[in-house]
Design the sequence.
């Protein structure tokens, strides 16, 4: 998790609010898929995955800066204790690991044809996980709001 000034947090939260204003399950899926699919690119996917992890930490820091009550909640708890968080983590891990496998095969000059089928299967699994996770996350956000829980950036 990063350290974020109040000014940076306010800027992030205003951008975040615009991003999620009319989001639904398919929007969450689309957003997560645009993050996950580049992770399959040999070599680049590893760097993209690290950048995505840093961005997530920055987002958590900005949210806790603007909502101090959340400082007591460990960011990884949200990730590991929510079903959609585990689904996203699994999807991103598949992409990053496949990126590593492919770049290793390229550097060892292994025939890449043998990697087409497993890579396609993993992409299908990632898309399935993110589709289910997006709708589950949206459902859980709606359920939380029905119970009166207000979340930063999601004043629907």
Sequence:
């Amino acid at each position: 998790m990063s350290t974020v000034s109040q000014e940076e947090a306010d800027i992030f939260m205003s951008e975040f609010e615009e991003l999620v204003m009319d989001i639904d399950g398919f929007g969450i899926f689309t957003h997560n898929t645009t993050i996950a699919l580049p992770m399959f690119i040999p070599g680049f996917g590893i760097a993209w995955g690290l950048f995505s992890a840093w961005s997530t930490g920055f987002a958590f820091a900005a949210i806790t800066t603007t909502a101090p009550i959340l400082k007591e909640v460990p960011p990884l708890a949200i990730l590991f204790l929510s079903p959609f968080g585990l689904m996203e983590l699994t999807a991103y891990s598949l992409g990053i690991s496949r990126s590593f496998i492919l770049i290793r095969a390229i550097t060892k000059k292994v025939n890449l044809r043998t990697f087409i089928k497993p890579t396609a299967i993993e992409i299908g699994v990632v898309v399935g996980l993110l589709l289910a996770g997006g709708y589950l996350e949206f459902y859980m956000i709606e359920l939380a709001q029905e119970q009166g829980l207000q979340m930063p950036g999601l004043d629907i």
